[in-house]
Amino acid sequence: MRNYTSLSYGDIIPDDLQSELIFIRDSLKQCFFRIGDIANEIYDGHSHTVQRDVINAAVGALCGKSGRTVRYYSETALFFPPEVRQEFEVLSFTHFVYAHTFGASWRVYLEKAAGSLSRSAESIAAELSRPAVVHEIPENLPSESPPETPGTPILGESDDDEEFRLEGRRIKRADLAMKYVDLLASVSEIIMEFPLAQKDASRLSDALRSLHAALPAVLAAANS
Fold first, then answer.
1. What kind and span of H or E run contains 181?
2. What whole-number distance in Å separates Cα of residue 211 and Cα of residue 101?
3. CA separation for the pair 224, 187 (Å, rounded)
4. Model confidence pLDDT, tens digit, residues 25-47
5. CA–CA distance from 114 to each of 91, 92, 138, 169, 211 (Å)?
6. I need a surface site. Which of 119, 131, 159, 190 has the fewest CB within 10 A?
7. How far is CA 9 from CA 18, 29, 145, 162, 173, in A?
8. How far apart are CA 18 and CA 76, in angstroms?
9. Is 164 a residue whose pLDDT tops 70?
10. Closest listed residue to residue 90, CA positions, set 115, 116, 114, 121
11. What is the pLDDT of residue 176?
């Protein structure tokens, strides 16, 4: 029996359909960016006197999208100028959405994605967000305390036991840092997938930006 888990996209999808899907991807990206650009142009044209949510709702009504979706388009379009879009033209709009969540490190994400086209946008975001501390845990670290034998000092009575305790704390902190990163990815996915009211989605987006801003401090504390 053939091992289907080892199949590549090229093995599954015929060449002609691959080309068609790539064309659709690029067309959708151009359309989504254009919708975002239009919403931003209208906002600027009203000298910022009309609320963005009102403009997004109006634009969405005409193009068949919710105001919340138009807000994602406009925020992404505002963040990435045309020259950056052109530089990473091989990527999908979803890649740009995820790159936006990385703030000042957006280029790191896009360059990684451009070199890993066979991977999903979500998996790349998860990899780049994962704290490096997990790779620094010694491979030979005992998974449990050694059994007591005659002459062996009880826990807490030797420098080795203290080091073991501290290493255990580092592992726990690394695990908590990974959970923090997973939380960021989950909130990002909830914002994109759930049919939330605009005010609720905006609150989550603001919270996500704050959580991302605190990520360096969390990772530094996990390494301390």
1. helix 159-193
2. 10
3. 27
4. 999 999 999 999 999 999 999 88
5. 6, 10, 32, 37, 26
6. 159
7. 9, 21, 47, 51, 38
8. 26
9. no
10. 114
11. 77
130 falls in which pLDDT band (50, 70, 90)?
Answer: low
42-51 contact pairs (CB < 8 A, 24+): 43/74
Short-list 55, 18, 16, 5, CA closest to 35: 55
Residues 6+ apart with CB under 8 A from 95: 88, 109, 110, 113, 121, 124
The two tokens of residue 65 are 């999208």
pTM, whole model, 2 decimals?
0.57
Q: Which two tokens stand for residue 208?
A: 């996500």
The residue behind tokens 């010694």 is 138
**What's the confidence (pLDDT) of residue 23?**
92
The one-letter code for the residue type at 141 is L
Confidence at residue 79, expressed as pLDDT on a 0 to 100 scale = 94
Q: How far is CA 146 from the centre of its chain?
A: 40
What's the CA dihedral at 41, 42, 48, 53 to 10 degrees? Answer: -110
The Cα–Cα gap between 104 and 68 comes to 24
What is the identity of the amino acid at 171?
A: I
Q: Which two tokens stand for residue 106?
A: 């957006």
